[in-house]
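quick one, 129 residues, struct below
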Amino acid sequence: MKLANLSAETLARLVSVASDIALIVNKDGLVEDVSVRKPELAALGCQAWIGQPWAGTATAESRAKITSMLKLEPVGDEVRWRHVNHVSTQGADIAVQYAVRSLGADGRMLALGRDMEAVAVLLVDGFVL
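---
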């Protein structure tokens, strides 16, 4: 799929529809921009992540996953989703599943996230599929 002819505004709208949270992360792992579609995720204070290391927004056990995602080179069109838990000041950690793709030669990455809270609730309640 080629998207080169899309305007920045159109691409931004597509990203916001396709994900619950989207991050632009620079080559140093710092969050440059945040877009949040779900109020539950906005409650994390995601806008305060701008200028901060993305890994610093996550729990200790999830930081290595973020570091790994930012270093991975995609193989063809393969998209690998990784589960990350974000620290919440409002109680339980927030589970998000991310896929990361390169935005070009400058090293910036797009991280598209899906809220996994409904799945986490099922697992906590002992529900087995």
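The radius of gyration is 15 Å.
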